[in-house]
Design the sequence.
């Protein structure tokens, strides 16, 4: 039985084709999910991809969080379904309350598109088990509002529980607290990150294929569940 | 409010009309009256004045386009599916794929309001590509600004870059390259030329025409508002109170405001409509809005058209027919749909939450009739609006000071001779605004989205994979050195063509087509028209020699401040095709262990219009480098063979800044050092800084060196071994001159733009 990975498309989603391709590269079946349809079509996991959902003219992800499909995602995540939010998807998961904190305007005030080194801090989540703890991976970062912010107590909690999954290496590209690039839920099933692993699955079109590990990790998580 | 109807116009033939304020000449207005047999209504006057403007009618440039058609050979015609006159040119690239691409200017709006001017420039060119039935694949932008350290450049450049990024990033189109050039002549007149490329199956080509009586005209996308109405506001009734209470109508900015989210949704909506095969014809609404879309669709079709203007969804109250027809509100498209498909069409629009309204139909007659609540406000032969505007054969005269410009050559400029001075010049050049790293700019653009980007800046060309099964792809480059064009517009335009052709070739692709964006001063200045005519002839003759057609483009006149025109800037975009993107050639050296550096082509003492003369001496004079298009073609063939047989591991075009700059970039991009040896037969300065055309720096694996150089020799392409790549080294070492540390070079190359604009 193949693993079915849902990829949500909101109006304004941009990286859905990339997320679907990454799932296929990991030999999963990519299943398109539509923002207005609460039906998750029996998928084993969901990717909330990057882009500018509904234009993001309000706060990033603030409207998408109320889309019919997100109600189902929140419910499924509550039952342990693996969910990955990338970039705008991370922002949406924060707005939806599946992950703590918020993403704000980059400290440099410009949109930044660059190849970014990340350190894998936690390799026990559904989306990071294929990496060695402490490994450094190179994937694209491309966002204008990627600065991770949370209250001190939330940051302490995330750090204390080892829920920071990825951390920026080198200069902080966007002012994120503690160089945080990605975090996970308490049960390690929901992961959100600003950088784009789906753009690093093949050295032909990305800086490396380092991002593929996240999608392969999911395969293990679903098959071993 | 009282609306000027055709009936009213017939009964008030002597009513004064503000045609001069709308930019029409006396004889043009007389001709409109002659065509109609009466005075035009306000709405008709608005339509004619916009459609007969320089921007829409190409009235000063049209007569010169024959050079393009006259130079077409059967070889060039064979691959062209659509050419000049369509929204964008289309070429067949094999395997059933077709590519459409076009460059368009948005210069003047970008000076007035840099962010929105640039943003809507991207939006407009993307809609041109959708109007061909294509999925947009990528964008590029070719930008020119005043001096880098001028205060106004600090206002214009960051806004333009943020606008290109803000709009393009939100559309989900990778930005794969372009240019940023600084020159004083662009200070009051920056150039923002946006390019978009799209892909479609050959059988899905949609041309803009309204055929088949009874077919419905559907306007979809954003609502129509008062933005971008510009000059037509003089027609607005004075009975509306403005905000200032002066009794005048409130004027909105003439620069349109873009909404990239609406455009993104519109793109997806159009693609789904195309996929369902329910569109007969489609046209984007750009400059001239509905005036353009309705008259062009009707003019290109086989019947007339009736438009019910009161059905157009508005976002402002009290808009007059003239304003609705001339509004340049963004993110709108117009489609021709068979009656039986209207419901399906509306369903797709509803899925994407796109507003769609049936605003009219194709009729049996030959007239474009527009009514406003049952009263006829426009009744015209559409061809007279869209295609039969005035045509001018403007006076042409070689500038009186051209000979003096040529006579003032670079020969007398002091050249560095001591080793330390030459090394210092390399660093100075690398840090100069025109040669410095563009990262500050390109880092604000998404180059990864959609996962097809194989090459992007700082590569010489951008490359996109279009077929994941076969790995077929395309490459694109845009170029123009306005200083060369100033010295000799004919040769300068050919040098721009040659450079773009070469940039595509060094990526491993085969050039197949050209799109141009011709930016010049006032066509009313005979000296400018001479530059223009020379440049067009240069491009047309050059394209014939290279065997690649010009498939479309854009002319932008009146780029001048006072009586001083910009450097003539015919930006040339060259499209290439590559059967397998996995064999692309990167720009940076050091990809393989043990590479030899070879210089292909001839280096002559050529410094007229060079970057060195500009940076070090602020000098412009003499003649530009010699053009040899047969050599460019040969270079392209050799690089293709090298790429196919895996003989080339990196290649970088030599252009602005010459060999020195190419070496610096190849090392820094590849993060690898090199040892270079110069030829004892020529002075070091000339070898390092000359801008002779037709040259490429290649890195070949040592195991392939003999095979590659034998091929060059056999094909009579001059080559010279200029060095070896040294992955262990942290420097660029030039024999007999000394070493430059990569760290020092990187600081110089990458530090300039952040220091100026952060």
Sequence:
């Amino acid at each position: 039985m193949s693993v079915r990975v849902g990829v949500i498309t909101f109006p304004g989603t941009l990286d859905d084709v990339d997320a679907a391709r990454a799932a296929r590269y990991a030999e999963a079946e990519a299943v398109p999910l539509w923002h207005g349809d609460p039906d998750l079509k029996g998928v084993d996991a969901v990717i909330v991809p990057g882009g500018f959902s509904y234009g993001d003219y309000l706060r990033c992800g603030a409207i998408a969080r109320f889309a019919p499909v997100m109600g189902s995602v929140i419910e499924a995540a509550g039952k342990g379904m693996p969910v990955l939010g990338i970039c705008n998807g991370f922002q949406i998961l924060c707005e939806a309350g599946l992950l703590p904190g918020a993403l704000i305007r980059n400290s440099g005030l410009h949109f930044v598109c660059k190849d970014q080194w990340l350190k894998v801090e936690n390799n026990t989540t559904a989306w990071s088990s294929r990496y060695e703890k402490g490994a450094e991976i190179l994937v694209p970062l491309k966002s204008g509002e990627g600065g991770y912010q949370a209250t001190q107590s939330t940051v302490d909690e995330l750090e204390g529980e080892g829920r920071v999954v990825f951390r920026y290496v080198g200069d902080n590209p966007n002012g994120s607290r503690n160089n945080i690039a990605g975090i996970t839920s308490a049960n390690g099933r929901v992961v959100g990150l600003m950088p784009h692993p789906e753009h690093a699955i093949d050295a032909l079109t990305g800086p490396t294929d380092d991002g593929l590990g996240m999608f392969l990790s999911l395969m293990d998580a679903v098959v071993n569940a | 409010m009282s609306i000027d109807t055709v009936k009213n116009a017939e009964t008030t033939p002597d009513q004064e009309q503000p045609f001069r304020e709308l930019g029409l000449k006396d004889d043009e207005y007389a001709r409109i009256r002659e065509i109609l047999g009466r005075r035009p209504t306000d709405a008709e006057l608005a339509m004619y004045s916009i459609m007969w403007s320089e921007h829409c009618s190409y009235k000063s440039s049209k007569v010169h386009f024959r050079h393009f058609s006259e130079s077409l050979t059967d070889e060039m015609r064979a691959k062209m599916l659509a050419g000049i006159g369509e929204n964008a040119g289309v070429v067949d690239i094999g395997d059933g794929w077709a590519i459409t691409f076009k460059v368009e200017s948005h210069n003047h709006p970008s000076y007035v309001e840099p962010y929105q001017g640039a943003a809507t420039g991207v939006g407009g060119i993307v809609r041109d590509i959708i109007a061909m039935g294509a999925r947009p694949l990528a964008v590029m932008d070719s930008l020119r600004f005043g001096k880098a350290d001028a205060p106004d450049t600090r206002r214009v450049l960051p806004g333009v870059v943020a606008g290109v990024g803000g709009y393009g990033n939100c559309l989900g189109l990778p930005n794969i390259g372009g240019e940023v050039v600084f020159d004083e002549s662009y200070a009051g007149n920056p150039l923002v030329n946006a390019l978009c490329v799209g892909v479609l199956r050959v059988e899905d080509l949609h041309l803009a025409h309204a055929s088949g009586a009874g077919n419905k005209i559907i306007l979809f996308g954003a609502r129509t508002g008062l933005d971008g109405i510009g000059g037509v506001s003089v027609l607005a009734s004075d009975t509306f109170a403005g905000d200032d209470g002066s009794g005048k109508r409130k004027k909105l900015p003439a620069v349109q405001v873009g909404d990239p989210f609406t455009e993104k949704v519109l793109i997806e909506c159009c693609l789904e409509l195309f996929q369902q095969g329910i569109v007969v014809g489609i046209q984007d609404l750009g400059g001239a809005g509905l005036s353009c879309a309705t008259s062009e669709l009707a003019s290109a079709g086989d019947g007339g058209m009736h438009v019910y203007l009161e059905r157009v969804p508005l976002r402002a109250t009290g808009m007059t027919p003239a304003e609705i027809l001339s509004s340049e509100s963004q993110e709108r498209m117009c489609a021709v749909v068979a009656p039986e498909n209207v419901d399906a069409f509306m369903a797709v629009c509803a899925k994407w939450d796109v507003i769609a309204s049936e605003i009219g139909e194709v009729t049996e007659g030959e007239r474009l009739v527009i009514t406003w609540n049952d009263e006829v406000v426009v009744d015209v032969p559409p061809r007279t609006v869209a295609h039969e505007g005035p045509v001018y054969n403007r006076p042409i005269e070689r500038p009186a000071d051209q000979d003096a410009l040529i006579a003032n050559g670079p020969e007398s400029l002091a050249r560095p001779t001591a080793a330390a001075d030459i090394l210092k010049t390399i660093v100075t050049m690398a840090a100069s605004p025109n040669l410095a790293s563009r990262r500050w700019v390109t880092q604000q653009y998404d180059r990864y989205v959609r996962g097809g980007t194989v090459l992007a800046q700082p590569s010489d060309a951008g490359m996109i994979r279009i077929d994941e099964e076969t790995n077929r792809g395309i490459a694109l480059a845009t170029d123009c050195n306005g200083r060369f064009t100033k010295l000799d517009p004919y040769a300068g335009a050919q040098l721009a063509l040659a450079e773009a052709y070469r940039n595509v070739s060094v990526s491993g692709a085969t050039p197949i087509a050209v799109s141009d964006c011709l930016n010049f001063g006032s066509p009313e200045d005979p000296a400018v028209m001479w530059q223009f005519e020379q440049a067009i002839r240069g491009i047309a003759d050059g394209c014939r020699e290279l065997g690649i057609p010009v498939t479309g483009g854009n002319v932008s006149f009146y780029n001048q401040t006072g009586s001083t025109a910009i450097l003539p800037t015919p930006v040339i975009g060259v499209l290439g095709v590559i059967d397998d993107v996995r064999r692309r050639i990167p720009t940076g050296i050091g990809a393989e262990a043990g590479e030899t550096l070879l210089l292909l082509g001839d280096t002559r003492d050529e410094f007229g219009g060079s970057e060195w003369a500009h940076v070090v001496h602020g000098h412009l004079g003499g003649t530009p480098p010699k053009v040899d298009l047969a050599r460019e073609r040969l270079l392209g063939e050799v690089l293709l063979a090298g790429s196919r047989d895996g003989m080339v591991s990196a290649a970088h075009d030599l252009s602005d800044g010459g060999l020195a700059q190419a070496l610096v970039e190849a090392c820094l991009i590849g993060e690898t050092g090199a040892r270079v040896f110069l030829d004892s037969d020529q002075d070091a300065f000339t070898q390092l800084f000359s801008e002779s055309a037709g040259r490429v720096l290649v890195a070949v694996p040592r195991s392939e060196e003999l095979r590659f150089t034998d091929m060059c020799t056999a094909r009579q392409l001059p080559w010279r071994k200029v060095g070896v790549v040294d992955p262990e080294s942290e420097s660029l070492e030039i024999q007999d001159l000394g070493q430059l540390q990569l760290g020092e070079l990187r600081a110089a190359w990458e530090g300039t733009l952040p220091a100026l604009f952060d």
Summary: Chain A touches chain B at residues 11-12, 14-15, 17-18, 21, 51-52, 54-57, 108, 110-114, 140, 142, 144, 196, 198-199, 201, 204-206 (CB under 8 Å).
